[in-house]
Write a structure and sequence with these properties.
It is a single chain. The chain is mainly alpha-helical. 73% of the residues lie in helices and 5% in strands. A two-stranded antiparallel ribbon has the order 1-2.
Length: 313
């Protein structure tokens, strides 16, 4: 069995496993990686970019090496290779947990329980929930669903299509490190610089594919393309910009604007300014769009591997 079929069958099994099982309540491999990365940080931390780059190299390089070793050990068995790809895919994607958290907040808002929604919001994103009303929480959820469709699903599938199991695990390592140390706090402004920049590079193809697929499968393809072209470049994140703008245009809503992180207020540009304000039902619409985008990304990745194999043979 060729590598193209191994990826297609294994990644499909992993996505199906995520759909049916979600993330494990305990012992999640990503959590184990986070503990290991934190232990490395305790040894290496200095307020210096070079030491941060060393931290990134150790954590990401070690993860990729582990994935390469595991893939090498099973490469003589197609069934084992498919199983390993499936387990790796299930471990690194988070579409079901993303949908579950978004819908939990949506149900709380539908019931009028804004305090319950505020209490749940930190499970999904880093906004300050006390600064948000019901519509503000709904907007934060839609933005998080859009961004995490790329970060937690499509980006991993893109790198899995490129590099198999090492690509899947390496992308999740990069993305997790960015979440841990890639923010501009006094402790991590320099130390986390390498992780943040590597995440920008690794996330670039997945973000563009997410934006394209959201435009193709959303309710308003023309609106998605228009918002992407007009507003994506104004977003402070090179990868969240295209994704959130495309989702905003596809759903016909406005995203962006004033928000608060860790007590720090940010005034971000409005995406798809001609759209309407986000309301609670838009959470479910965003989740459904995210699901479609994730499965289509698998198809694109499998097709790309098949085409690449055909050209090499």
């Amino acid at each position: 069995m060729g590598a193209d079929r191994v990826f297609a069958y294994g990644a499909a099994a992993g996505l199906l496993g995520d759909l049916l099982l979600g993330d494990p309540r305990r012992g999640h491999p990503v959590a184990a990686f986070g503990r290991a990365a934190a232990a490395v940080e305790r040894v290496l931390w200095r307020d210096h970019r070079g030491w941060g780059a060393a931290h990134t190299a150790v954590c990401v390089g070690g993860t990729v090496a582990l994935g390469s070793l595991a893939a090498r050990c099973v490469r003589s068995s197609p069934a084992a290779s498919v199983a390993l790809t499936g387990v790796a895919t299930w471990a690194v994607v988070g579409g079901t947990s993303l949908a579950r958290e978004a819908r939990t907040i949506g149900r709380a808002l539908e019931a009028g329980d804004v305090e319950a929604a505020r209490a749940r919001l930190p499970h999904l994103c880093g906004r300050d929930p006390q600064a948000l009303d019901a519509d503000g929480i709904a907007r934060a959820v839609v933005e998080s669903v859009a961004e995490n469709t790329s970060d937690a699903v499509v980006g991993a599938l893109v790198w899995g299509a490129v590099g198999g199991v090492p690509g899947l695990l390496g992308f999740r390592a990069v993305n997790t490190l960015d979440a841990m140390v890639g923010h501009k706090s006094p402790r991590y402004r320099r130390y986390g610089w390498a992780s943040a920049r590597l995440d920008d590079v690794a996330g670039w193809p997945g973000a563009r594919l997410t934006a394209v697929l959201a435009a193709l499968t959303g309710p308003d393809p023309r609106g998605a393309v228009r918002a992407w072209r007009a507003d994506a470049g104004r977003h402070p994140s090179p990868n969240a910009g295209p994704v959130e703008a495309s989702f905003a245009g596809a759903l016909g809503v406005r995203l962006g604007g004033t928000l608060s992180y860790g007590g720090r207020v940010e005034h971000r540009p409005v995406l798809n300014g001609g759209g309407r304000a986000v309301t609670v039902p838009d959470i479910e619409r965003a989740v459904r769009l995210s699901r479609r985008v994730g499965w289509l990304a698998l198809g694109v990745g499998a097709a790309a591997r098949t085409v690449w194999k055909g050209r090499r043979s």
